[in-house]
Amino acid sequence: MPGAGKSTIAEGLKSKGFEIINMGNAVRNEAKKRNLEPTGSNLGKLMLELRENNGPGAIAELIKSQIENSKSNVIIIDGIRSSDEIEVLRKYGTVKLLVIHASTDTRFEFLQQRGRSDDPTTKEIFEERDKRELGVGISKPIALSDDAISNNDLTKEELIEVSFKKIEEWLK
Q: What class, spelled out in words, does domain 6-171 have in CATH?
């Protein structure tokens, strides 16, 4: 779910040499092409529109060229939201899913601290965003993940290290 720590992990893993592709950035890039301001509302509507017009795996399709052009054997994809996206990604290789859990209060606090243009400014907007995420099917990948990490009481460094160790295990 938004604010659980996925992007924090991705940035930490990038510093350890992993290639990162952020699916939210793909939506933000599409918004830029359409001259849309990158607010939470605009990006949420665009995400839904892309899925409606191009199918439920549409956001994964947006990152297809990045995957195809990658020289890396391992790519960390930040921001998978549905099983349909996972199916698109499986066309390019093995997919392992690591879910990051955090309580609602923790996630809201993290998003408040992050301060990105699309982050919710109120609890109501936060809850609306969560409903939108659940509506596109995020609960199924969460339920069917290969592993999970709880990020309620970890420092940033601990979160990155625990994630790194899980991925190292998968690569053995």
A: alpha beta
